[in-house]
Amino acid sequence: MTETALDAVRKRITDLDSQLLTLLSERRQLTNEVAETKIKHHIPVRDIKREEQLLIRLIKEGQKVNLDPHYVTQIFHVIIEDSVLNQQAMLAARANPGSALPLNRVAFLGDKGSYSYLATQKYFSRRPGELLEIGCQSFSEIIQKVENSEADYAVLPIENTSSGSINEVYDQLQHTQLNIIGELTHPIRHSLLVAKNTSLANIKTLYAHPQVFTQCSHFLAELGNVEVKTMDSTSTAMLTVSQMNRDDVAAIGSEAGGNLYGLMAIKSNLANQKENHSRFFVVARDPVNVPLQVPAKTTLIMSTVQKPGALVEALMVLKDNNINMTKLESRPITGNPWEEMFYLDVEGNVQDGPMETVLARLRKMTRYLKVLGCYPSEEVSPTKVAAANALAE
């Protein structure tokens, strides 16, 4: 193929890409109109049966034009997730009139390029108003910014699929009056970032947040004699390496974040678990109302009475009311040796009957109970189509 012919093909591809973007925008607008109907008639956001029928039809149509079923399914999983999250955001905005701000002041750990920064960008991209980023050097500083009205929201990492729960954040939540109003899960892709093109063997010093080192412990063990220096945040590690501008130092962070500091990735996928994700809480001074059409989670803390089986009895209240618990975490109670506070994430809305029953019963049988927040669940599980393999034959 001559260069002229190649240019012509590339121009055709560019034109098609532009058409795809226009069609995707039109489709999103139509799903927003669907959301208006759901709001009016109190219809749940997700209709799994319709999603399954949609995917089956699209897989069949895709096969007619030589598109692989897996390829079609992947594309429309992303489109369906976008539709669900946009509709949930619309319903949440209607349920909380006056909550939309012209300027969203958001406190998070680190600075531009940190994973908390990327999570902040992701979460507030679906919310109206401009974004003012407030980088902080500690979790306590983040909480204080919101408590003192210097920020409207805080984004806090709460757990990671590789390194587990972030206990310091749980301890902060135990002593704050702020409310959890949202959550998100963000993929964590660790890369080795350098200021100058160099080899892995030449690296003598590594900079990263302690959690990052934990998540990449297998990679560190393979490196051998390399000095490890912990930093307050991933962004601080990247800034340090950028300013040093040497070929024997490196930071561990996201490639996207490294680009903001002029760093390049010389090795990627460093985490022990290749499917590495972090979950974040979004907190604010005031709670939010979650419409019953939107899947909701509730996070609460409780302290049980000191007797055998007390925790089991409390958890049976969830089972008796068909409430699914997605997380149970224990933390020591400050000043009370050998006593623990339990953190629970459950699938349920505090305005719904079963959850109201659960909370009423738990208040009677526990020494302490506090709802930290009821918020929309943003974990959109992909629609599964059992017939997909058969259709591919």
UniProtKB/TrEMBL annotation:
The answer, when asked if Phosphoprotein is one of the entry's keywords, is no
Which reaction does this chain catalyze? chorismate = prephenate; prephenate + H(+) = 3-phenylpyruvate + CO2 + H2O
Its keywords, alphabetically, are: Amino-acid biosynthesis, Aromatic amino acid biosynthesis, Coiled coil, Cytoplasm, Isomerase, Lyase, Multifunctional enzyme, Phenylalanine biosynthesis
| Superkingdom of this protein's organism | Bacteria
Report residues binding substrate.
R10, R27, K38, D47, E51, S83, Q87
A biological-process GO annotation: L-phenylalanine biosynthetic process
Q: Name one Pfam family in it.
A: PDT
Domain Prephenate dehydratase spans what residues? 105-285
Q: Quote the pathway field.
A: Amino-acid biosynthesis; L-phenylalanine biosynthesis; phenylpyruvate from prephenate: step 1/1; Metabolic intermediate biosynthesis; prephenate biosynthesis; prephenate from chorismate: step 1/1
Coiled coil start-end? 13-40
What are the GO cellular component annotations?
Answer: cytoplasm
Q: Which SMART domains match?
A: CM_2 (SM00830)
Q: Which PROSITE patterns match?
A: ACT (PS51671), CHORISMATE_MUT_2 (PS51168), PREPHENATE_DEHYDR_2 (PS00858), PREPHENATE_DEHYDR_3 (PS51171)
Q: What is its EC number?
A: 4.2.1.51, 5.4.99.5
Gene3D superfamilies (alphabetical): 3.30.70.260, Chorismate mutase, Periplasmic binding protein-like II
The Chorismate mutase domain extends over 1-91
InterPro entries for this protein? ACT-like_dom_sf (IPR045865), ACT_dom (IPR002912), Chor_mutase/pphenate_deHydtase (IPR008242), Chorismate_II_sf (IPR036263), CM_dom_sf (IPR036979), CM_II_prokaryot (IPR002701), CM_P_1 (IPR010952), Preph_deHydtase (IPR001086)
Q: Which residues form the ACT domain?
A: 299-376
Q: Its function? A: Catalyzes the Claisen rearrangement of chorismate to prephenate and the decarboxylation/dehydration of prephenate to phenylpyruvate.
NCBIfam families found in the cross-reference section:
CM_P_1, PRK11898.1
Please give the name of this protein.
Answer: Bifunctional chorismate mutase/prephenate dehydratase
